[in-house]
Design a protein that fits this description.
Helices cover 35% and strands 23% of the residues. It is built from seven helices and ten strands. Strand 8 and strand 9 form a beta hairpin. The chain is globular and about 50 Å long. The termini are far apart. The structure holds adenosine-5'-diphosphate and magnesium ion (MG) (2 copies).
Length: 213
């Protein structure tokens, strides 16, 4: 069983809606990881118990070269810590912003990796539901890793909850209808466009206009 005392904590790597992520090193083995920290107070406040449980259980059960590994977790009085594979290259979002858009070669490579990872997930009845450039990380060799399974579900039935980020939402989700693994495939198309052109195809000034487009 791990505890905070087993790790040397380094600088911040990023943050999302609920999580703050830090570089860390397991003290004995010197193995580098990323620690995702979620405050229990936030879990209470935003009622994300279910979401976090899914993130932990689903991501732990997945083992694929293009999916970020979740090695384990532990907690203290105030926080929950997820022990994650470290992605040295950071967010694919950063590469996209820096270069404006990707070359066809680069885009093809990322789309192939993403397709293989999604096919693996869907084969296990796992839907990610929040694929976007902020949640796609790169390792030290530039290999794509799907991260952030906070919105994922494991189910072969149709789902109802609307989730994800507007620009990447499939029409069935926008219209609040039942959805399944195909929502991830929709996102694959959105990303392919964004990789090549630099912006997602339905981007607009307001959320209302994105819905309309
Ligand atoms: P949230 O669920 O709050 O969105 P994420 O898991 O997406 O949190 O992590 C937030 C950000 O932290 C990511 O977008 C990324 O920039 C950074 N990050 C997360 N995990 C890692 C990791 N394993 N290695 C490097 N950076 C990471
Ligand atoms: Mg995220
Ligand atoms: Mg999340």
């Amino acid at each position: 069983q791990w505890s905070l005392a087993d790790f040397e904590i380094g600088g911040p790597l990023g943050k999302g809606k609920f999580g703050r992520v830090y570089l860390a090193r397991e003290a004995k083995s010197k193995y580098i990881v990323a620690l995702k920290v979620i405050f229990k107070e936030q879990i209470e406040k935003y009622k994300i118990h279910h979401q976090l449980r899914r993130e932990m259980e689903i991501q732990t059960s997945l083992s694929h070269p293009n999916i970020l590994r979740l090695f384990g977790w532990f907690d203290d009085d105030e926080r929950i810590f997820l022990i994650l594979e470290y992605a040295h290259g950071g967010e694919l979002y950063g590469v996209l912003k820096k270069n404006g858009h990707l070359t066809e070669q680069q885009a093809a490579t990322y789309i192939a990796s993403l397709s293989q990872a999604l096919a693996y997930c869907h084969g296990k009845c796992v839907i990610h539901r929040d694929i976007k450039p902020e949640n796609l990380l790169l390792d030290h060799e530039g290999r794509l890793k799907i991260a952030d399974f906070g919105w994922s579900v494991q189910s072969s039935n149709k789902r109802k909850t609307m989730c994800g980020t507007l620009d990447y939402l499939a029409p069935e989700m926008v219209e609040n209808r039942d959805h399944d693994y195909a929502v991830d495939n929709w996102t694959l198309g959105i990303l392919c466009y964004e990789f090549l052109y630099g912006n997602p195809p339905f981007e607009a000034e307001s959320q209302k206009d994105t819905f309309k487009r």
